[in-house]
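Hi R.,

As promised on Friday, here is the backbone we talked about, encoded as structure tokens. Could you run it through your design pipeline when you get a chance and send me back a sequence?
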């Protein structure tokens, strides 16, 4: 049962997570101060205003299922409250984009554009490319980004299995990626492998929902063990992967957030 898996790992997280006072690595300490410490920001207020507009909406959206081609109705308010990244974690994406100053940001799983909104607002000179299978959701995301007044997002419609390899070959380098689409073990590992030839020492990959299911946790454990991965940071909801060449030994931190 997924719910027991999540509860078990949540308590484990509370037990093992370190506060900033116990971080021995200067790099991770700086990362903590810049990315995990919550600070008010007008851009966050703007996205919160957009979120509450969606939360109050009575509208439905027709979403076409990638596998069956069938359409089904989904409430916009439900996509905001249950599908999109929660505000606390969206803010991590915002601060990551601001701190890392990435040129190319890739997101897998646009939905109604909330997480890409945080990424785009975090750094308006970054190019944010977001991939989604449903054209109805992409259209809704465009509207959401107009509301936020962001103009640095590019949308790629279609099955990520097809669109991601073409995009990566074109971009040649990825500085920051947020992986939040197909939540199966194999898909998650495939996405990770796809990014590997295009990352550099300062690239950061963020995996959502690493404790959402046993499968996702298994994928996360495999990713942590990969020889190219030099540093991992966990904040329960997200697993953050870094490839820092400076790290001779592989390190892993679970951080209180
Ligand atoms: C959890 S939602 C993304 C939420 C979004 N990142 C946010 O926080 O606002 C996952 C999205 O991935 C899309 N998706 C899943 N598998 C896909 C695939 N193979 N190709 C394209 N899109 C896919 C779904 O249509 C869904 O909209």
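Update: got your reply. Pasting your designed sequence below so it's all in one thread:
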């Amino acid at each position: 049962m997924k719910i027991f898996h999540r509860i078990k790992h949540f308590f484990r997280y509370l037990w093992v997570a370190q506060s900033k006072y116990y971080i021995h690595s200067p790099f991770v300490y700086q990362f903590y101060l810049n990315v995990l410490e919550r600070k008010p920001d007008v851009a966050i207020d703007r996205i919160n205003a957009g979120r509450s507009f969606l939360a109050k909406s009575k509208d439905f959206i027709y979403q076409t299922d990638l596998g069956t081609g069938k359409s089904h109705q989904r409430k916009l308010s439900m996509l905001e409250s249950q599908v999109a990244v929660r505000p606390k974690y969206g803010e991590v994406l915002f601060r990551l984009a601001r701190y890392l100053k990435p040129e190319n940001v890739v997101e897998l799983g646009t939905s109604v554009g909330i997480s890409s909104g945080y990424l785009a607002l975090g750094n308006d000179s970054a190019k944010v490319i977001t991939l989604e299978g449903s054209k109805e959701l992409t259209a809704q995301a465009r509207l959401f980004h107009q509301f936020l007044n962001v103009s640095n997002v590019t949308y790629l419609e279609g099955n990520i299995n097809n669109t991601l390899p073409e995009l990566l070959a074109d971009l040649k380098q990825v500085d920051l990626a947020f992986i939040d689409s197909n939540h199966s073990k194999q898909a998650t590992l495939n996405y990770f492998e796809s990014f590997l030839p295009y990352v550099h020492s300062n690239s950061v990959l963020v995996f959502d929902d690493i404790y959402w299911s046993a499968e996702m946790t298994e994928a996360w454990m495999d990713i942590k063990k990969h020889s190219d991965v030099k540093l991992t940071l966990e904040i329960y909801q997200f697993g953050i992967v870094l490839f820092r060449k400076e790290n001779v030994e592989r390190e892993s931190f679970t951080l209180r957030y």
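One thing I noticed while checking it: The longest strand covers residues 127-132.

Thanks again,
M.
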